[in-house]
Each structure stands twice: as structure tokens, then as C-alpha cells.
Amino acid sequence: MSESVPETVDMDKIVSLCRRRGFIFPSSEIYGGLSSCWDYGPLGVELKRNVKDAWWQAMVRERDDMVGIDASILMHPQTWVASGHVDGFADPLVDCKNCRMRWRSDDLAENKCPACGGELTEPRMFNLMFKTFMGPVEEQASVVYLRPETAQGIFVNFQNVLNTTRKRLPFGIAQIGKSFRNEITVGNFIFRSREFEQMEVEYFVKPGTDKEWFDYWVQERFNWYIKMGIKKEHLKLRQHDKTELAHYALDCYDVNYLFPMGWAELEGIANRGDFDLGQHAKYSGKSLDYFDEEAKEHINPYVIEPSAGVDRSVLAFLVDAYDEDVAEGEKRVVMRFHPGIAPIKVAVLPLSRKEHLAAFAKEIYADLRRHWMVQYDDAQSIGRRYRRQDEIGTPLCVTVDFQSLEDKQVTVRERDSMKQIRIPISELQKTLAAKLAGEDILVLPPGGQVWK
Ligand code: ATP
What we know:
It is built from 13 helices and 24 strands. The chain has about 450 residues and is an alpha+beta fold. A hairpin with a 6-residue loop joins β4 (about 90-95) and β5.
């Protein structure tokens, strides 16, 4: 039975908008680019920062049971022996004997090269960790790895956090940072790259309460995407079957998103039991247990891990926001970002470049940018400027005209409905804050009116 699939946008449209408007560029493009590495441009960096800030706000700042850390990317090499990455973090690699392309054999539906149909070699295991050398001598003893996940930086700091924060179980440690994987097959724009960012939490709980906390985090993380504006019908939970689970994992769900190439993992939530702390205790010789004051006994906490990709989230937010409609008889591309995610919150648009009007509009701009990321745009017709802001997803535009000089009022236009209100400048900041927090554009402040 075929499943009905909601519509989504072409990846090409997203890639081209990102390039055209300065969200994301290929890395080192003037040298021909570097496969699967990407640079975030002026709008992309704001978008990405907003995604990370929204996550940090929800996961750390608004919770009593969470603290953050920022561990280094290079870690003691034993970390990766203990975690199992040196022995086990590998994918099966096959080469095409004809065109020499390389593939992950578990990605292939048939045993032949997807590019040319050629014969493939036997699979061999390929470790995905990037190696580098620490210090001036390139020898085996100085090998270190670029971390393939941020999680291990959390586990090795478990005792440090416990000793310095007085946190009691259950509590979590959160981290956002770069990870590196020498992926065999990359692609689908920023979905899978070799350098990416993760947002991870290790949530430590008493054994026996882990199932309950696991269910809690699966729901919590699913709901976060909806709260930040992703359409519910574009999200799905998928439980791993027993054969997919890592040997130590007790359960795992993926939050899947309907990307242009189909449903794929956005975030994984795993019940990792006591595997990680146990391994690090064993390999470091340090005790990583927890003294339960109530029961007066030492226990080995279990851990629930919600692990999300920043870049994959950025891609999901871009895809989900993309829309096309008609404005004043013309096709309009509009990015319907949640205001918390939108790179630019407000644009100030003076109707003319004439000096006295520009000076007045710049004062408004200077005042607003103390609160938000605001853009000032005085180039071309007002219609063209609205279209430009719609295309980068700016929720609100403030238009300053000659009448504003007289009546000290400005027009506020909303991106989605294109409705406009005219309000006193003295009410502007408060009104913009209310609209960005979700209030209807037509709720008027004192002295405001619906504009034609
Ligand atoms: P996949 O099966 O897609 O390779 P994974 O199951 O190996 O992902 P995890 O190790 O669970 O991924 O990492 C957690 C999250 O980190 C993923 O859900 C994803 O959002 C992100 N992530 C992992 N690998 C990459 C990558 N190569 N590029 C971008 N994001 C990634």
C-alpha cells in the first residue's frame, strides 16, 4: 500500500536560493570547492545561530535540570578506544572496478555501481574518524582524532560537572559543537557533510527510571521542532528495530523529517544504558559512579541521549519555510520562518533616499537594532524591497515615508498576510515585539490604524 506523502520543495530551489541570497556557499569555491564542505554566508550564519540559540534556550536556560559545557574537539586518543569508535566506527566501503567511484555498500539496493553499472569490489570496513597529528612529529604515537561526535566530551566531564554544580539525578549536560566524519557518500546539500555541528544532550537518570525518561525525551524533542515552526505532517517518529540497535543501546527513536529526497533522520534519541560511563571508568581507571544520598549507595547512572544535527535542522527549517504565492499579480517566493528562526527580524525601508527622510529612518533603525537583527534597505522600489525581504523570510517591514516626518507614524507590514498597519513611532518597539511573539498584526496599539 503506498503511503500518501505531503508535498515538499525541490532541493535545487533551496540550494539556489541559499546561494543567491547569501545563506550557504560551497566551501573554498574560488578553488573549485571542497566536496561536502559548506560555508554559511551573512544570512546563513544568523539562521544557524538562531537554531542553536533556540535549542540552547529550550534545553539549558529554561530548565533546572540541565547545564552546558563546551569541550575541545581534540581529545585524549584513549577516549575513542573506550567509546568503541577506534574499533567499530566504520562503514562498509566498495569500489567500482570500472569507474573507481566509491560507495557505502549498505546504501546500495543492488550489487553494482549506481553510476556506471560496473562490478564492485568486496566490501571492506572503513573507519570514519579523521586522523591528525599533535605536535611537530608525524608518528603513530602522536595521532589524535577530530571528534566524530560531541557526546564523548560530555561523558569525560561527568564527574567535573557533578562536583562543581551540585546537580542530582536526573540531570543533563548539553553541548553544541563541530563534529567530523569522513563519510563515504555525502550529498543532499548540507544534509550529510564531512564537517558538521551537533546539538547533544546526555541526560543521566537512575536505572529503572530510564524508560520513562526515554519516552519523555522522544516527545520533548519531537515537539520542539513543531514549536519552532516545522509542520507536523513533515515529521515522523521511527523506532529502530532490534537489529539496528548498537549492542549497548536499549532503545532508539529517530525524529525523521520529509526532506526533498524523502524521509530521513533529523535527530536520534537513544537509551544508552550505563555503557558510556562504564567504558570510560574502565579505560581511565577513574570512578564515574554516582552516590545516591537517599539510598546511601553508589549507582551507575543510565543515560538518555537526544542527538541532533545543527546543519540538518537548518536544512529542515529552510525546506519547511519555502513557499511560493502571488503578490500584486506577481509570483512571490516567501520563506515563512518562525520569527525566532528568521535571520532578519525587521527591515527598515525609507520610501526615498532624500537626506532628511534617510536621517529620520536611520534613527529608527539605530533604535531597533539594539533589540533585534535589523536590515536597512533603501535600494529600488518599495515593492521590490518587500519581495527581497519576503525571500529571506523577514517577518516584519517598517516603512518610513514623508508623512512620517509630520505625524511621527510608520507603516508595519507583515510578511505572511502582507497586511499593513500604521502606528505611532512611540509604540513601534513594543508593537514589533508583540508581533514577533505571535500577536495578530491587526491587534492595534494606541493610535494605530489598519492601513490600506
Ligand atoms: P546517519 O545515519 O544519517 O549517518 P547517524 O545515525 O550516524 O546519522 P548520529 O551518530 O546519531 O547520526 O548523529 C546524530 C545527529 O547528527 C544525526 O541525527 C544528524 O542530525 C547529525 N549528523 C550525523 N552525521 C552527520 C553528517 N555527516 N552530516 C550532517 N549531520 C550529521
